[in-house]
Amino acid sequence: GENVEQHPSTLSVQEGDSAVIKCTYSDSASNYFPWYKQELGKRPQLIIDIRSNVGEKKDQRIAVTLNKTAKHFSLHITETQPEDSAVYFCAASFTGGGNKLTFGTGTQLKVEL
Amino acid sequence: DTAVSQTPKYLVTQMGNDKSIKCEQNLGHDTMYWYKQDSKKFLKIMFSYNNKELIINETVPNRFSPKSPDKAHLNLHINSLELGDSAVYFCASSQSGDGTDTQYFGPGTRLTVL
Question: What pLDDT score was predicted for residue B28?
Answer without folding.
Answer: 94
